[in-house]
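User: quick one - fold this with heme C bound?
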Amino acid sequence: MHCLFKLPFLHQVSCNFKFCKCHYRNKNNECNKAFKHFLPFISIFIIYFNICQSHALDLPDPLNKNDFHYSDPKKAKLGSLLFYDKILSGNQNISCGTCHHHDFGGSDGLSLGIGEGGQGVGPKRNAGIGTNKIKKRVPRNASALWNLGAKEIHTLLHDGSISISDIYGNQFNTPAQEWLPPNLENILAVQALFPMTKQFEMAGNFGENEIIGLSHRKIDTAWPAITNRIKSNQTYVELFKYAYDDINDFRDIKISHVVNSIAAFIISEWASYDTPFDDYLKGNHAALTSNQVNGMNLFYGKANCSSCHSGSLFTDQKFYSIALPQFGPGRTRLFDPYTRDVGRMAESDDLNDMYKFKTPSLRNITLTAPYGHNGAYPTLKGIIKHHLDPKNMLKKWTPDKANLTPAEWLEEIDFVVFQDKRERKRLLSRIDIKSLKLNEEEIDNIIDFLHSLTDKDGNNRPLGRPHTVPSGLPVD
Ligand code: HEC
Ligand code: HEC
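Assistant: Sure. Structure tokens for the protein plus heme C:
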């Protein structure tokens, strides 16, 4: 849109070179010669101005309500209860909200999360006691859920393992392949199916409950078992009847209704576009401080951040390696049981995708520390400096930067991969970002600019966390 501003200038330039008729005539209708002498100088000035403008003005459109999928308020309200209800987890001890909590900007404040078995929320969550002790950390940082309901989102998760695609004939490329249930309204409904079936997130360990067994045997048999729990809860049955025209009694409730409700909640709850930067884009130039404007010019100019963090959502939804330090249990694969995380490559099986992760959005980034796919940096300064000089920052990184829940039985493996020199060499051989020198003031200005992407109501969402849920289970 901003490019449109350039059109009048270009018109002026072409006129100055007499590509169009003379605009400056005297009373006798003769062209004003004196004025004409200045035309070349004016033209040069205007061309220069245009070049400067085209750099400074390559800004995205502001984000607004129409950029999002529709979210039905009745479904969203029901979704908020399901999102925080532990009834959806195998051992009824964890909800989506435990890891995507309102108090932590839709994430959990930890580098690597603690799945079922742990207790509490955020950095105070423990790793469980006695037989409930967790067996493994969640290998990646819990993503915040900001603006995932935007229509342009086509790829989810750090490695993009859920995306819109027709490869299985059901609109989505997911780990369930062709076994996805029908009538899923959008990619968020699809994603909501999977944490429920994952051992270390919500399903629990083998032998502990029926959900994990079913998930392992044939994934699409776990979802009806979860739905049965909802069907036998009278409060839920009434709420589903109220929210859906095609539900007349408990027998009509399907897993698609459950996840479509959760998706409706995520769409409206985490839609966020009331920021100083959006005000600026709408023409209120006083919305940003002069430091933020400096930061913006760097972001869209010399620092080249916008080449990947592009568009209104600040992500191109593509994959790059910036060589963040590795730690934690990793995402082991059947034929690669090492504690590393090869990112996109595990999904694409293409060696060129090694260690690549999806460009994250930067909206509300001030609310969602720590940063990176494994939460390697506690501060914005840290992660930005890493982008500027991955090799040296990797060398300087120390394990105390990771915010990991104490669990002495897991600590032995937490930094094995970080200390492995050969693995580090492999990681460093795959960097997709150009090193760049910025001084401290420039980095601070960029951070100031990132602050302008924080919603004025970031911590005050439309529905918030419910105090009670229909199952009667405690709400985290
Ligand atoms: C144990 C913690 C945990 C629980 C419980 C959990 N999640 Fe997540 N969630 C994560 C982690 C970690 C990621 C990133 C995983 C990855 O990219 O591989 C994530 C990613 C997501 C994403 C994708 C975000 C993006 O930007 O691509 C969505 C959507 C999501 N979760 C929704 C849910 C819903 C809905 C539930 C409940 C049904 C849920 N999560 C339960 C930890 C959790
Ligand atoms: C080559 C593409 C690319 C460029 C250029 C780039 N980034 Fe990133 N950025 C990424 C990727 C990919 C990640 C996630 C890496 C990971 O998790 O391993 C990321 C992560 C981040 C994060 C952490 C976000 C989160 O949710 O954890 C911030 C903040 C960030 N970038 C800011 C910047 C800034 C500021 C610049 C300009 C100085 C910049 N980026 C330039 C690709 C890029």
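One thing worth noting: Residues 33-56 form the longest helix (24 residues).
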